[in-house]
Fold these 3 entries.
Entry 1:
Amino acid sequence: MSRKRNDGTMVNSRLIRRPIQRWFPVFILPTFICFIIGFIWPFIQGIYLSFCKFNVAKDAQWIGIQNYVKALSDPGFIHAFWNTAAFAVVSIILINVIAFAIAFALTHKMRGSNLFRTVFFMPNLIGGVVLGYIWSLIFDGILKYYSTYLTANATYGFWGLVILVAWQQIGYMMIIYIAGLQAVPEDMLEAAEIDGANGWQKLFRVTIPNVMPSITICTFLTLTNSFKMFDQNLALTGGLPQVIQNGAKINMTELLALNIYSTYNINKNWHGVAQAKAVIFFLLVAVLAIVQLTATRRKEVQQ
């Protein structure tokens, strides 16, 4: 008599898949309910409130697109957008280039590489508000020799934010790049070396194409983090210095998230405008993230 082979496929199909298919609603339902209560419903309510004038949600009065008109005509919001765009471009390039360079160096045989990985990653464990206050003391201590301070000059404030965020996030991105570099097939590198490729050719023709999944993730994280940055901006500069342009007060180092927060705290008549800015902010970040993911994933290679 022939016996059926009890291989892994039969075990997976009979002993694992069927119970999961039968009972998965019991496990998914609590998480799904929490997701609706904590994200979906507030998100829908936030979109509705962006078309309303309100002090609290219960007192909302529908006013149409007036909040969006005010938001898009606010000089401070427009300046914060361009300031955030410039900050994002500089941060993405600086953080990813330095993180990749450090990861590339640490994946080669190097004495004390594990210690260096820990040291570079540690700044990511410190909260953004604490970092902001620490670096404000550092920058003001340096700039006092030039009879100025960080919030007195928009250029100093901008580059102070770049340095702070780079110092905080480089170690985290480095870990992701190390994982990608360690997954590069050794036989491809050996084949390239046999064919006479030098170090730069192996880097750009073999290593980087195989590390594109890590580049995709790190670019996505640095892009979204740059646009969403709030606590570091609030603690380091608070948006200062402030100037008056065409009768409007503009905070020169204010990014989008801080601008939305400041708009909400102007007075109760601007709560709806702040909510409209938040919806615009969400759409902007979502579109940029989708475009970036699509563009970088096309360059990934299949191993």
Entry 2:
Amino acid sequence: MGQNNEFGKEGEELAVAFLSKKGYQIIEQNYRYRKAEVDIIAKKDRVLAFVEVKSRRSNYTERIADTVSKKKIKLLVMAADHYLIANEVDLEARFDIITILKNKQTFELTHLEDAFYHF
């Protein structure tokens, strides 16, 4: 596994731990449908969050959340729609982004709820 893949997996595990600590139940990790992948599907109360995790190193210059392209959003929506229908889910659904910025040995984590409305 390449260094970037390992760092991405580490970021996803940090995001899972963060969500769990905040009271979310982790339903799925790396849910795939066709060409789409949702990093984390998590439930809290009556909300099902489809979470995209973006991890970067400290020398990254643009806002991390801005790296989620319109194409990626379209794929996430397609996968979420499939998941909701296939599993007959009757919960409010939303799309979140968790960004993780690594500075040397520390991590700065930001959770953007309803993230697609922040673009």
Entry 3:
Amino acid sequence: MFYYGIDIGGTKCAVTAAKVVGDEITILEKESFPTPKNDPDGVLNRLYELLAPMIIKQGEGKIGISCGGPLDEETGVVLGPPNLPGWDHVEIVRFFEEKTGYKAKLLNDANASALAEWRFGAGKGTKNMVFMTFGTGLGAGLVLNGKLYSGANGNAGEVGHVRMSLSGPVHYGKKGAWESFCSGSGIADLGRELVRKKPECALLKTAGNEENITAKLIAELARKGDKDCRAIYRKSGRILGKGLAILIDVLNPETVVIGGVYMRSHDLLDPAMYKEIKKESLPYAAGVCRIKPALLSENIGDYAAISAAMEAE
């Protein structure tokens, strides 16, 4: 049995063929292309053009589709993700099943990534695990009692919209949403807030203008000792810990795996994060929970889509 993964993102799409034996995955082929704007039909046709020769070469299999929400995992329909303009009510599972004759499964990218880290990465061997993206946005995937928990229609784990503060950048249409502090775009927005209040700061001098401010640049300056940039990551870590304390108390996971910015900059986030968890979470829940950076790194999109394929029935 072969598995075919389709990873759909706002900037890039990819098609992957893989073989899975036990808990080991081998990527056999991969093709990718930049995602054009407002052209779901064009993207679907291009994805099929890349998928078809892989199926001919490798053989029978199942298809997994990893895509940002909102979407309906039960019906296999993409429902207009903010990073995919024009993708309103796209019946993507039906498209690929009719084209190939093989079963396909659509998963929210956070859910698919949770399965990938649980099967092949930092969550391997656990029964209860939370995965958090901490990338462009903040989403979560939940593996509870050894199974993916998606909710009624695949939208469980949308933690990024939860309001964590009455102030802060606006994300998810809310000022102070969790994503406003704990995402690459959120940290960049905190940097822009800084330079507006303090135009003489090193961040603006280094970036040149607000558009060049990124979470990566802020991390670089923080590691060089810049107090303003260290304060931004300290604030992000504090809000991260505050939210994690809630998840730890409600879900009682063994492991929380965090990707994206946390994976690259947890040294800057951990002190404030752990301090907040200790302050806010029940000690007997926090005591059994380990916070880990994701292991699958830049390959997580491929592994996530393949993990979605493994759920196809």
